[in-house]
Amino acid sequence: xxxxxxxxxxxxxxxxxxxxxxxxxxxxxxxxxxxxxxxxxxxxxxxxxxxxxxxxxxxxxxxxxxxxxxxxxxxxxxxxxxxxxxxxxxxxxxxxxxxxxxxxxxxxxxxxxxxxxxxxxxxxxxxxxxxxxxxxxxxxxxxxxxxxxxxxxxxxxxxxxxxxxxxxxxxxxxxxxxxxxxxxxxxxxxxxxxxxxxxxxxxxxxxxxxxxxxxxxxxxxxxxxxxxxxxxxxxxxxxxxxxxxxxxxxxxxxxxxxxxxxxxxxxxxxxxxxxxxxxxxxxxxxxxxxxxxxxxxxxxxxxxxxxxxxxxxxxxxxxxxxxxxxxxxxxxxxxxxxx
Amino acid sequence: xxxxxxxxxxxxxxxxxxxxxxxxxxxxxxxxxxxxxxxxxxxxxxxxxxxxxxxxxxxxxxxxxxxxxxxxxxxxxxxxxxxxxxxxxxxxxxxxxxxxxxxxxxxxxxxxxxxxxxxxxxxxxxxxxxxxxxxxxxxxxxxxxxxxxxxxxxxxxxxxxxxxxxxxxxxxxxxxxxxxxxxxxxxxxxxxxxxxxxxxxxxxxxxxxxxxxxxxxxxxxxxxxxxxxxxxxxxxxxxxxxxxxxxxxxxxxxxxxxxxxxxxxxxxxxxxxxxxxxxxxxxxxxxxxxxxxxxxxxxxxxxxxxxxxxxxxxxxxxxxxxxxxxxxxxxxxxxxxxx
Lengths: 339, 339
Prior knowledge:
The structure is a homodimer of 339-residue chains.
Chain A: E1 2-6, H1 14-27, E2 32-37, H2 39-46, E3 56-60, H3 71-77, H4 82-92, E4 96-101, H5 105-116, E5 126-128, E6 130-132, E7 138-142, H6 152-169, E8 176-181, H7 191-202, E9 206-212, E10 223-225, H8 228-254, H9 257-265, H10 267-277, E11 285-288, E12 293-296, H11 303-319, H12 321-335
Parallel strand pairs in A: 1-2, 1-4, 2-3, 4-12, 7-10, 8-9, 8-10
Antiparallel strand pairs in A: 5-11, 6-7, 11-12
Helix pairs in contact in A: 1-2, 1-11, 3-5, 4-5, 6-7, 6-12
């Protein structure tokens, strides 16, 4: 099995991408990574690492797509960028099952749709990150920002795709799906909420009803479905609030000698907390609904995050996630007389 | 000056409402509270307190509206409830400047619109809670859930109302207003975001552009404007995440002897943190856009929260907030050729 890695565009540069890739192959002898990027730089980083040379291919590229660029324009014009070369390889080489990138989210999504294409019946692929919950579990959010104007049928597709994904990656047999809303009662929310609610009820998933944003991390749900606008607000607000609370604690420790001593005794508690919120441990966000596996890691990904994202693609490929999504979505099409 | 207090419907019952009211008058001899609720109960609570009898009136009621009831039905049918009696008194007595309730949010909003009515030109009054920011400051969110389907003009009104409110209550001369969006660039978001953005630019406020949910508590903004659906998601997600993070720390302390010792040394840090997130210190959420002052406190309000909410109404009345809102909104009407 081959997985292509876009080695540029993330905050920490090619070094962590290559190191993470090497860690992944060193644990999996049936895996080959295709490293896309500036050849000389990749070779230089590789020269300091131990690995089986048969498990590494280099796919040369001379350009890098940055976060600040217009995604569509960058994907169209930067034909020799690491991301575009990675997508071409993913498209053309049937042995390559998926792609990992920690670069510009917009460019990764645009590239996936333009170069790889959507799964049959799915008009809106969606981004699906993993977040920690209070009971030590995990929750999936879909869509976290790929589609800002959605129809109810799109949310039904999101729910089905994430259900397949939760089975494949989180080993949850019958994932509990909730609709993001402003209250838990069936009739809560606006017209869009009501239509989504009805459609989700009839979809081939385990729909458990509406969820308030307050309960997102409660562990009561495995999958939370939302349009990309609201999903993005939910995701960013969790990130902002967690970082604000932890920042206030840090400030308290810095400003007090007593608190500094206390923090030493609480080292393990804080370390666990940091681990809980360390997205490197979970792999990246899957972009579901395109014909091959795409995992978009955090811009600040370290080598561990690259490694986890690559192994994530491997797990999903073994499960045959894209096929499973296609089959399940077709089932909804039959139930609802097509899209 | 008189302020009417709905003594029932909150989690801790009439005791905290009456005690908070008495604290408020004991610090302000020009203030009278009109306590609405079950007469015998209120008299019994008062009998244990020291206060000037001239500063307390009782407005008897025999019914209570609960959170579980349909707001519109409850306000219409429970004519002898503490909330409906409070609204009647607020409407009929010109000396009563405002109302404080910690009961059912839906019933408080419905009552305000049915019994008191909207300020001229404002079709959508909105709920405006106060949240803490990282730099020890405060941020207003409007609308946090009163209006789930909004037009851009409603958001312009929200921005103007909250600007008047921030001047009156937070003493901010030129409050920075941001639009909740999924990115900071001018063209981010959906069609609705774009229309709101253009209208806010032309409104008589200090509009500083789009804000990502991640920056809500950063202290970079004084007012965040959103439709009630997205505002509600933002608010609830902040509450849920803060409570999840603090809960994980608590769990860590309970599960480890070392952490227990550490927590003793960090007592002040945790106390400050708890204080930062203790909404009792800020007063309640103002319901802006109706003809009299309405403050809705948290359902779990204690006596301190009631006291702060009453004093909040007093401050807003001294500023003549409703008049100020009417004047400023009329200004927008002129700019945009009316609503």
